[in-house]
Amino acid sequence: MDPVTRLGVVGCGLMGSGIAEVAARGGLDVRVAEATPDALEAGRRRLTASLDRGVRRGKLSEEQRDECLARLSFTYDLGDLADRQFVIEAVAENRDIKTGVLQSLDKVLEDPAAILATNTSSFPVIDLAVATERPAQVIGMHFFNPVPVQQLVEVIPALTTSQDTVQRTRDLAAQLGKQAIQAPDRSGFVVNALLVPYLLSAVRMVESGAARPDDIDQGMELGCAHPMGPLHLLDLIGLDTAQAVAESMYEEFKEPLYAPPALLRRMVAAGHLGRKSGRGFFTYTG
Ligand code: 3HC
């Protein structure tokens, strides 16, 4: 099969804008869909700022940045994705929203062989696949934050996903310069199944007063050479996303270690979502 040249990305938040960026940098024609003008403008700004940062860091020339921008188009209308060969949804980690987006895309895509990938962090891919009329062409494609930096993509076939779809998704990951691993269709897949209990344990340490956020993070950075401690990482991921992932994993396994601690819930309720809101376990300016 020919390589994918026309990619759609739905959602231009932290993950969607990163996916669109690496795809444009990989030479693909990328069309990005968002639900509201404000969200689209914020996403476009984030994406442009990231490309500008790449220029400042000497990772791409001004000419290459401009070529990337020329390969990107934006829309509010999912109907504008009709000619896409492959669409990645990266909307909020909410089962109903993701299901609705995939069902709409399923109707809109002209090519019956086009693939629908979900960047869900935790929902079983099979539930999303069977909500469409093309369950053999629905697959999980889980990217990591920040997308331009993290090398990994988890490729998650559902029970219904065809081998062709798996291969095409692996090929696309390679086109984007990513390294794919195959992960099981269990909530949390491979990485979050290991990462989330660790992050939640750090929240419980703060909640119980056992240790201070700075000490916890320095412990893991200096003691275990992690690039950032668990609480800074939660702030980067977004506490609302982390809560949604933990809830989904708890729903699947009923293991107490996946249950979101009360402190996490309270912080989300207060709007302390991490970097994106300027405040989480730490505060951020600019
Ligand atoms: N976009 C593009 N490049 C970025 C970037 C971004 N948003 N953030 C950082 N970078 C690049 C910088 O340009 C720099 O590149 P260079 O060294 O080649 O010039 C490099 O990354 C290092 O950046 P900084 O010097 O600014 O900062 P740090 O050294 O502190 O690194 C970090 C920042 C890359 C975020 C690093 O701390 C890190 O890797 N942290 C761990 C992130 C992680 O674990 N992510 C996975 C989260 S889990 C997830 O996403 C799954 C979901 O389902 C929950």
From TrEMBL:
Q: Which residues cross the membrane?
A: none
All residue ranges annotated as the 3-hydroxyacyl-CoA dehydrogenase NAD binding domain in the record: 7-183
This protein's pathway: Lipid metabolism; butanoate metabolism
Q: Which UniProt keywords apply?
A: Oxidoreductase
Q: Domain 3-hydroxyacyl-CoA dehydrogenase C-terminal: where?
A: 188-284
The family database entries (InterPro entries) matched by this protein are listed as:
3-OHacyl-CoA_DH (IPR022694), 3-OHacyl-CoA_DH_NAD-bd (IPR006176), 3HC_DH_C (IPR006108), 6-PGluconate_DH-like_C_sf (IPR008927), 6PGD_dom2 (IPR013328), NAD(P)-bd_dom_sf (IPR036291)
Question: What would be one Pfam family of this protein?
Answer: 3HCDH_N
Extract the SUPFAM superfamilies matched here. 6-phosphogluconate dehydrogenase C-terminal domain-like (SSF48179), NAD(P)-binding Rossmann-fold domains (SSF51735)
NCBIfam families in the record, alphabetically? PRK07819.1
Protein family according to the UniProt entry: Belongs to the 3-hydroxyacyl-CoA dehydrogenase family.
Protein's UniProt name: 3-hydroxybutyryl-CoA dehydrogenase
Native species = Streptomyces vastus
